[in-house]
Design a protein that fits this description.
heterodimer; A: alpha+beta; 6-stranded mixed beta sheet; 17 helices; B: alpha+beta; 5-stranded mixed beta sheet; 18 helices; 43% helix
Chain lengths: 466, 467
């Protein structure tokens, strides 16, 4: 048998650090930018097109700045239900026809709700693109929201939410959300509140939500593939260029109050052999110039928790730090452990060290290195590449900023990391799910107190004295 | 080595226009397979999409190569792989090296294979191979590390045990596989894990973690012409133990008579129902394993009778057939999930529907064509992601054999409605099954279920997790 080597276009390299310590070569970044075009449809919807020469696959993501944030508490589930039912049928494509096409051409077609923005996407091969794009456009423009479909998906989503309550990790996260997000905050949506919302929703609510979604003023498009640009532009203008615009306002997203005296920790009883810990705290907005540095800090926490909690002390199989940069940012730390007290103390010590001591340059460089790999892993697949371009379009108003991420990271210094830790790693909210007889309330209260404004001030004073 | 010197290596730039040659899997292999001087297989697939390379070391080992008294130890071994070798004192050393190389890594142990993988910048392939070789050739399995890692593995065990379905799944496995059920349980027995010794792990090393039982798969951006010599450089001195023979894996006992298991669990939600049958095994019944895959996809077809009757109608929250290609065992599972008021109806209709699948007109030719086309397209999607495609090949080498992979899509496209009907008659109709139901106390009352797990737990010498 002949052995075929699959080779792609490109001038790619991971280079020696340049003057600024870049881990991806400038040439590579310039090539990616060269292969990315931006333009606008006739109704001003921005389009980003990343060409991948000779790619068989094409992916389109259409996002709208409409999400859970835009919904009041009683209607919190509207966006999710709307986006589940939207791809089922439209005026020109009744349900049977949608099913036939999706199966015939194996379209990966669906929609997903988000907090700040929501998306619909289609992934297919070039041969079936044209038909698929028409289908997607029709579903987005005039979904049928047939009553039977609304009821079917409502029941499914309710059951899915109920199933989530079986999972102690989801329960812990949900309990953390409940104490972290004030009632009425646009980001708040506990399992209980969403369940109540699903029960109360009507078809008319979905139609209203769709009306908000389908607004050229809110929408953006990203395409990744190998089509000729002119042809793509023509198709997109034809199918999406007629979407009208409506002025809109969004509910304000206020920062979560940090130095709370009460409601900072919660315990949920469950007869399980290991505790599930979820900690939430304020983090930089996606618009904050320091968001990239905070990603790096989060990674450093992730690695250090792994080493200190798991490797050195065997306290946990799984300890994570994560960061959701939205209009306001949310940081999370989670762990499973049969020793929650000890685990919280180690997490505490890791954070305290990051707050008070700078990493060495070598330590920081080492932590940065993995972004050479994760950056290119994100470039491997059309969907992750499209998502990255979309995210940068949303938060930086510049999709091409996605390619500059490694360069921005290379400018972060140990001092930046320390200052970020001081500014943000405090004011924690702790949720624990565990067996009642194996847990003590004082453990999470001690953790929260340690990073309260007053205690931080005391320790700072003591350090200055000494 | 300091950081700037490490990163001073610049990597070749593919500046010329290089043509893309699309592999047509029907006729041409996308990989190259070779045997090294020490008996290890080397499989390579060059895909220069991004300047990354993924190295996977895989073994024909897992729960299937364990005896009862060491159940779970292969998984413990997997953890110990990262905890130190001749050049690296402990896991902190591994983590530091990982950071220096900008590497992501992980490992997994299942019933039929264990694999370790590194993804890193292609310019560090040499260093990545060296690290992989050091980890497998000279693992320290230090006592102190083992004592620590045992506790971590126990936490992993406890995470599984925290899920509502844990007890039921263990009982089901014991019912299906009898005295050999440990060979489908990679997680193992908690009490054994808690006491595993270094000597026991060393014994496992010589039994299964040897070159002849292994393959190294390299996928991504690398120089094919130089690969073999590079791999030889690092692995040539890794040898099989003297007189090594592949472990003999006993057959499972006969499938039991029909058994029905019900668990009422306080944390369960909805009603989850499954019927597990003895199905085909790859390397024995290849054609039937492919028929199983086609049947699974055909049942998912949104225009199909099954989907409309069971999913679109709202009778279930989800229903279908699952099948996982394995060489030692082949479980075909018909499953469904519903709210309490529909549960009994769902149960009856799922079982009754199996008989309908024996009718050749249950599916249409168009639906089978859609399934085949869909699998071809899916394959293109997999090829689109080099770091994951090499892991697909890993599964193929270890479990199904690469010949199966080579001919899979062609064979799938030839499956007919008659083949599906024959498959159903052969494996499902009037065949014994192990049925499971799990639900919450409230839903059990509505649907009329009673927990019957205790006698089975006793018979199989198991305890409910948490007790």
């Amino acid at each position: 048998m002949r052995i075929i080597t699959i080779i792609f276009f490109g001038c790619l390299s991971i280079a020696a650090p340049l003057v600024a310590g870049s881990i991806i070569s400038k040439e590579t970044v310039e090539n990616f930018k060269r292969d990315t075009q931006t333009f606008r449809l006739k109704n001003h919807i921005p389009v980003v097109y990343r060409r991948i020469p000779n790619s068989d696959i094409i992916e389109i993501q259409i996002s709208s700045m409409y999400g859970d944030r835009d919904l009041e508490v009683l209607k919190k589930a509207t966006n999710t239900l709307m986006l589940q039912v939207l791809p089922r049928a439209s005026g020109d494509y009744p349900k049977e026809k949608v099913s036939d096409l999706v199966e015939k051409y194996s379209y990966a077609l669906g929609c997903s709700p988000g907090v700040e923005y929501s998306s619909c996407s289609l992934s297919t091969i070039n041969e079936y693109w044209s038909e698929g794009l028409k289908l997607l456009a029709s579903l987005i423009a005039e979904p049928s929201f047939e009553k039977s479909e609304v009821e079917l998906y409502r029941e499914r989503l309710i059951s899915s939410l109920k199933s989530a309550q079986s999972d102690p990790e989801r329960v812990s996260d949900d309990a953390a959300d409940n104490i972290y997000f004030p009632v009425g905050h646009p980001y708040r949506g506990t399992l209980k509140e969403k369940l109540a919302s699903y029960e109360a929703l009507s078809r008319e609510d979905l139609v209203d939500a769709h009306g908000n979604f389908l607004n050229s003023e809110r929408m953006m498009i990203v395409v990744v593939g190998s089509l000729p640009e002119a042809e793509l532009m023509k198709d997109l203008n034809k199918l999406f260029g007629g979407i009208s615009k409506t002025t809109f306002t969004r509910p304000e997203v206020t920062e979560i109050p940090r130095n709370k005296k009460t409601n900072t920790d919660v315990f949920t009883e469950r007869t399980i052999p290991t505790a599930y810990i979820a900690i939430e705290y304020n983090a930089p907005s996606a618009r904050d110039p320091k968001t990239d540095a905070f990603r790096l800090l989060t990674r450093i926490m992730n690695e250090t928790f792994y080493e200190e909690v798991r490797v050195k002390r065997s306290l946990s199989y799984a300890t994570y730090a994560s960061y959701s940069p939205l209009e306001i940012g949310v940081g999370q730390i989670s762990a499973t452990t049969s020793k929650p007290q000890e685990t919280l103390e180690v997490i505490r010590d890791v954070i305290e060290k990051l707050r008070n001591e700078e990493l060495t340059r070598t330590e920081l460089e080492e932590q940065r290195n993995v972004y050479a790999t994760t950056f290119f892993l994100g470039q491997e697949e059309h969907s992750s590449l499209a998502a990255s371009l979309m995210s940068n379009l949303v938060w930086r108003k510049d999709a091409l900023a996605a390619y500059d991420f490694p360069q921005r990271l290379s400018l972060v210094t140990p001092r930046d990391i320390k200052e970020l830790a001081e500014d943000w790693l405090k004011g924690f909210n702790v949720s624990i799910v565990y067996a009642k007889d194996k847990h003590k309330e004082t453990w999470s209260k001690a953790f929260v107190k340690y990073f309260s404004k007053e205690e931080i001030k005391k320790r700072r004073k003591a350090r200055r004295k000494s | 080595m300091t950081q700037p010197r490490l990163l001073a290596k610049t990597f070749l730039c593919l500046s010329a226009c290089l043509t893309l040659a699309n592999a047509t899997l029907a006729e041409d292999k996308v990989y190259k397979e070779q045997t090294l001087s020490n008996g290890m297989t080397l499989v390579s697939i060059q895909q220069r999409k991004v300047p990354l390379v993924t190295v996977v070391l895989t073994f024909k080992a897992g729960a299937m190569t364990e005896t009862k008294d060491v159940n779970g130890f292969t998984h413990v071994w997997e953890h110990m792989f990262f905890t130190g070798n001749k050049k690296m004192a402990n896991e902190s050393g591994f983590m530091k090296r990982q950071r220096q190389l900008g590497m992501v890594s992980n490992a997994a142990t299942s019933a039929e294979y264990v694999h370790y993988y590194f993804t890193l910048p292609s310019g560090f392939l040499n260093e990545g191979l060296e690290l992989m070789a050091d980890c497998i050739k000279t693992p320290l399995l230090a006592k102190e590390s083992l004592l620590k890692e045992r506790v971590v593995v126990l936490d992993e065990y406890d995470r599984s045990a925290s899920q509502p379905g844990f007890n039921l799944y263990r009982v089901k496995r014991a019912a299906m596989y009898g005295t050999e059920q440990h060979r489908r349980d990679p997680l193992g027995v908690r009490e054994l894990i808690a006491n595993v010794t270094r000597e026991q792990l060393l014994k496992i090393k010589d039994q299964v973690f040897v070159p002849t039982n292994a393959a190294l798969l390299v996928g991504g951006d690398f120089d094919e012409a130089k690969l073999k010599s590079l791999v030889e450089k690092h692995f040539h001195d890794w040898k099989d133990p003297k007189d090594w023979k592949a472990p003999v894996i006993p057959e499972f006992p006969a499938f039991p008579n029909t058994t029905e298991l019900v668990e009422i669990h306080p944390d369960a939600q909805n009603v989850d129902i499954s019927y597990s049958f003895a199905g085909p095994r790859v390397r024995k019944d290849d054609a039937d394993t492919i028929a199983a895959d086609v049947l699974l996809e055909a049942l998912r077809h949104r225009s199909g009778r099954f989907y409309k009757k069971f999913v679109d109608s709202g009778l279930s929250l989800g229903a279908g057939l699952s099948y996982y290609t394995q060489a030692q065992a082949g479980e075909v599972v018909v499953y469904g999930s519903s709210v309490a008021k529909n549960a009994k109806k769902l149960e009856e209709q799922l079982l009754a529907e199996i008989q309908e699948w024996t009718k050749e007109d249950y599916f249409t030719n168009g639906q089978l064509e859609d399934v085949s086309r869909g699998m071809f397209i899916n394959n293109k999607r997999e090829l689109n992601k080099p770091s994951e495609f090499v892991k697909t090949l890993t599964f193929s080498w270890t479990v199904t054999g690469l010949k199966y992979f080579d001919t899979y899509l062609q064979a799938l496209s030839k499956i007919t409605r008659k083949d599906l009907a024959n498959f159903v008659s052969k494996y499902l109709v009037k065949k014994p099954y192990v049925k499971t139901v799990i639900t919450s106390p409230d839903e059990a009352k509505i649907a009329g279920y009673k927990d019957n797990l205790d006698p089975y737990l006793k018979a199989f010498n198991l305890k409910r997790a948490g007790q």
